[in-house]
Amino acid sequence: MTIPKNSSATAAPYQPRGLLVDGVWIAPGATNTLYSPYDGAAIAEVPQGNSDTVDRAVAAAKLALDADGFERHTRIDLLDAAVEQLRARQEDFAQTIAIECAKPIKTARLEAARTVDTFAFAAAEARTFAGDVVALDAVASGRGKVAYTMRVPIGVVAAVAPFNFPLNLVAHKVAPAIAVGCPVVLKPASQTPLSALLLAEMLTDIGLPPGWLNVVTGGGAEVGGPLCAHPDVSYITFTGSPDVGWGIAARAPKKRVRLELGSNAPLIVDCDSDWQTAAAKAATAGFVQAGQSCVSTQRIFVHADIASGFREALAAGVSQLTIGDPLSEDVDVSAVISRKDALRIESWVNEAVSEGARLDIGGERIDNVIVPAVLSNVTPDMRVQCDEVFGPVVTVTEFDDFDTALEMANDSRFGLNAGVYTSNVAKALKATRRLEFGSVYINDVPTVRADQQPYGGGKDSGNTREGPRYAMAEMTEPRLVTMQ
């Protein structure tokens, strides 16, 4: 693997104006210094909200909702304008993403481009999103009646976003809410608030009315907890860890709580497949963004007949990855989000090796960078196999028959994405029926998401489907109207 020398930033980090409440940027008394995950340099002073700020933000959102003045055509115009601004400022957003979460700049540019798509899909869906005609006259008692359903906003949305996609996953919460007319109070991840604040600044500058997007930065106890517990919040959209997400749901039984949580995504590679392509794609799919993705390829199951060649090809591909400064144009893998996470991942790898796993390549820690690792000879109870590593680590396990591979893939508390490589149509169809995952990708890795797709899973991976069209349905309720 190549480890380049440090390179200097090409752009100064974005500096927040403050907290956004009712269209006004306010400066609370407390701030927190944000440090680069890669080199530890101070990059910004981030304002810190509290329960009082949350109360003000929710009150502003509730007033905006009650005023009912943000009409659909105006919302569509705003979303269209956001698409143009995001497209024009992609590099600004990409630089901000790369600096605050150590995402390699070429990957950060992809996230910025996807955010354009997310807003564009929301704008397109807003043009046609509507209810249905109900045929009441299909029964005698409905003679002379006309009925239809309206889709009405569910209410104030509390959006709690993660660090790993600090722009696009915020967009997946904010854009659908604007499309259907739900005001939002957003809590970005404490480690990566800059992209969200820059997006909010852009939206207010192009005319988003006051109260429709409020941004309160701060910790989970000070901001996240009070926000999710607030009585005027009707809908909670949370992306993050399973323990936190399910805890929120348990404490909010009367709210609609939608969770997109973790995974340890499996990839099955059968002997009749194009396993060379599978190995080449897995060599990046397990390590893009340092493995800090819900759908990062983690558990690879390979038929015994091709296992030796697959492992060799995988290791060769991983060895070509360049690690280092996220602002270097050629870097593929940079730091994980914090020293705590780097130490945890290192300890999980060492623990697996001490329990009998074989380290085929990588695994060393260089400050907050984990050198991409491939482990084989793992057992189902090792944490690198049964838990979500959320780091640049993949495991390789051999199987003898396809049904066994499906069972091993399903042997997980997670159920988000799965990938299968096979040239056998019957096996492919069996996989789509048997695999207990929200998405099954045939002849592709599971590290895939199109922003318009229904994205989500079951088990401990959550209870929702994101994507503008699907989020818009969840952020609204049908109201039946009949006329005699």
Structural descriptors:
484 residues; alpha/beta; Aldehyde Dehydrogenase, Chain A, domain 2; 2 domains; 15 helices; 21% strand
List the helices and strands and how they pair.
Blueprint: E1 19-21, E2 24-26, E3 31-35, E4 42-47, H1 51-67, H2 72-88, H3 90-101, H4 105-126, E5 133-134, E6 146-153, E7 156-160, H5 168-180, E8 184-187, H6 194-205, E9 213-215, H7 220-229, E10 233-239, H8 242-251, E11 256-260, E12 266-269, H9 275-285, E13 299-303, H10 307-319, H11 339-354, E14 358-361, E15 365-366, E16 369-370, E17 373-376, H12 383-386, E18 393-399, H13 402-410, E19 414-415, E20 417-421, H14 425-434, E21 439-442, E22 458-459, H15 468-474, E23 476-483
Parallel strand pairs: 7-8, 7-10, 8-9, 10-11, 12-13, 12-20, 13-18, 17-18, 20-21
Antiparallel strand pairs: 1-2, 3-4, 5-6, 6-23, 14-17, 15-16, 19-22
Helix pairs in contact: 1-7, 2-4, 2-5, 3-4, 3-6, 4-5, 5-15, 9-10
Family: Belongs to the aldehyde dehydrogenase family.
Domain Aldehyde dehydrogenase: 31-480
Keywords: Oxidoreductase
Shape: globular
Strand content: 15-25%
Calculate Rg over CA atoms.
23 Å
Low-confidence stretches: none
Count of runs of 4 or more consecutive helical residues: 15
Secondary structure category:
alpha/beta
Strand order of the largest sheet: 14-17-18-13-12-20-21
DSSP, total strands? 23
CATH homologous superfamily descriptor of the largest domain:
Aldehyde Dehydrogenase, Chain A, domain 1
What is the highest CATH level, the class of the largest domain? Alpha Beta
Task: State mean pLDDT (0 to 100 scale).
Answer: 96
Overall domain count: 2
CATH topology of the largest domain: Aldehyde Dehydrogenase, Chain A, domain 1
CATH architecture label of the largest domain:
3-Layer(aba) Sandwich
Pfam families: Aldedh
Domain Aldehyde dehydrogenase: 31-480
Protein name: Aldehyde dehydrogenase
Keywords: Oxidoreductase
